[in-house]
Design a protein that fits this description.
Order of helices and strands: HHHHHH
Largest sheet: none
Structural class: mainly alpha
Shape: globular
Number of strands: 0
Strand content: under 5%
Radius of gyration: 17 Å
Length: 131
């Protein structure tokens, strides 16, 4: 596997982890899934989202995007079909302010989830009804 492909798949894994957390935490709170209250997992989730949001708010591309572009040499070597598909799936051609707004809202949602579904087993009023 080429280094650029490895970075691409790490990027896909980070995206999947972040999306999974955004969906699993509220559903898990309602269904009583204990793992959604594991503190280190929740902190890692919010920290990754904070890093993504901060980069976008500073007008910078994600560091994984920068590394992949530097390693790919796309102008010299066209990417394989699957890598090309994944690229189109995760890299949208939009202005940076759109990403800053989107990532800022997603980060705010994740922080709200920390309050609504606190790690460590404490139940707030919003999650107690779902048990």
């Amino acid at each position: 596997m080429a280094p650029a492909d490895a970075v691409l798949w790490v990027h896909v894994a980070v995206i999947a982890f972040n999306l999974f957390g955004l969906v699993a935490v509220p559903i898990g709170a309602l269904r009583g899934w204990r793992f959604v209250r594991i503190a280190w997992w929740r902190i890692a989730h919010v920290a990754l989202l904070a890093a993504v949001a901060a980069q976008a708010l500073l007008g910078r591309a994600c560091i994984l995007t920068v590394w992949q572009a530097a390693l790919s040499g796309a102008a010299r070597n066209p990417p394989p079909l699957i890598a090309n598909f994944v690229d189109r799936l995760i890299y949208w051609r939009l202005p940076i302010w759109v990403f800053a707004l989107l990532y800022g809202l997603v980060f705010a949602y994740a922080v709200a989830l920390l309050w609504l579904v606190p790690p460590g087993g404490a139940a707030s009023g919003a999650t107690a009804a779902g048990r």
